[in-house]
Design brief:
single chain, mainly beta
């Protein structure tokens, strides 16, 4: 799984207005905000989450409160790049919809020539891609530009995009 800390920003998402698009899940791997997961079986109101699987249709994006664990204490985060959710931690996951607008500070691969952010089988992070999705590729994020987010006195670059399904 991805180990680089990132900031994920849901710029404009349907889940902000439709509560049924927000689920709770638990994974057997460490997660970060913005990680792509597959929602599996639901037990006692909580979904089993696994890393992305090619062809999966029940995709979710982790977006949980920015809470940091320091020496066993949970505190509000001063730097959202430090937020991780250890295996077994319940997290909120939203079901992405076409045209949802999102931003990431960390994406795997090289941005040169990339037009999409795509999930990789067995991983939770997105990767830059210059391939145009074809029918059946499933969840992708079309890159719409770049921007910045402020973290304290630092400006951190983002890649902006909108959710599509091929």
């Amino acid at each position: 799984m991805a180990t680089t800390n990132q900031i994920f920003i849901p710029r404009s998402i349907a889940a902000d207005n439709i509560d049924s698009l927000v689920k709770t899940g638990v994974a057997e791997v460490t997660l970060r905000n913005g990680d792509i997961v597959v929602l599996g079986e639901k037990t006692d109101g909580v979904y089993a989450l696994t890393p992305y699987a090619t062809g999966a249709t029940n995709i979710g994006i982790v977006y949980n409160a920015d809470v940091e664990n320091i020496e066993g204490y949970r505190i509000g985060a001063s730097d959202p790049r430090k937020i991780t959710f250890p295996a077994g931690t319940p997290v909120n996951v939203f079901i992405p919809q076409p045209w949802d607008e999102v931003a990431y500070t960390v994406v795997a691969g090289t941005s040169t020539g990339a037009t999409y952010l795509v999930p990789t089988d067995g991983e939770t992070e997105l990767t830059y891609s210059d391939d145009t999705p074809t029918a059946g590729d499933g969840f992708v994020v079309k890159i719409t530009g770049t921007g910045f987010v402020s973290v304290g006195g630092e400006r951190v670059a983002t890649v902006e995009g909108k959710v599509e399904f091929a």
